[in-house]
Amino acid sequence: MSDNYRSTTPGASDGDVARDETYTLISSYKIEGTSVYDPNRQHLGSIHSVMIGKEDGKVAYAVLTFGGFLGLGSRYYPIPWSELTYVPGQDGYVTSLTEAQLTGAPSYESYDEAGWGDTGWRGAVDRHYVSPGTATRTLGGSGRI
Question: Using one digit for the tens of pLDDT, what is the confidence trace for 90-139?
């Protein structure tokens, strides 16, 4: 499929790179706020941000905001990007994660400093999503957008 298709967010100036998307590329601007659904297609939360590897340029984590009411009491849950699959008909991402699995995952509050600079904290995030004794993720997802 040609990548000549371009879509710009309504109200954005023509050629606004920060908001453009093509058939194969999407701006992080358009990912932030996108809904995430559990395997039963129930709304879990939305993507607050994405964490991108500085050296390899790959999206490593989506930070899911989940819980609370009207933004109060929400927590932020980094989940491996590979746990998400974009489903156009759902108009969002679907994960095999359940609410119970997220509740037990490493997270932080909006006013807290996340431990991204702490390799131990990042290791805890990664370990939460792999099978014990293996390097295999416990959950599916293609990581495709």
Answer: 889 999 988 888 888 888 886 566 777 788 888 888 888 875 554 544 44
- Sole residue written with tokens 């849950």: 77
The Cβ of residue 114 has, within 10 Å, a number of other Cβ atoms equal to: 18
In the block, which residue shows the tokens 């607050």? 48
119-128 core/surface letters (b: 16 or more CB in 10 A; e: else): eeebeebbeb
Q: What angle do CA 21, 26, 29 make, to 5 degrees?
A: 100
Write the CB contacts of 145 (distance below 8 Å, at least 6 apart in sequence): 26, 31, 86
Decide: pTM greater than 0.90: no
- CA–CA separation, 16 and 9 (whole Å): 9
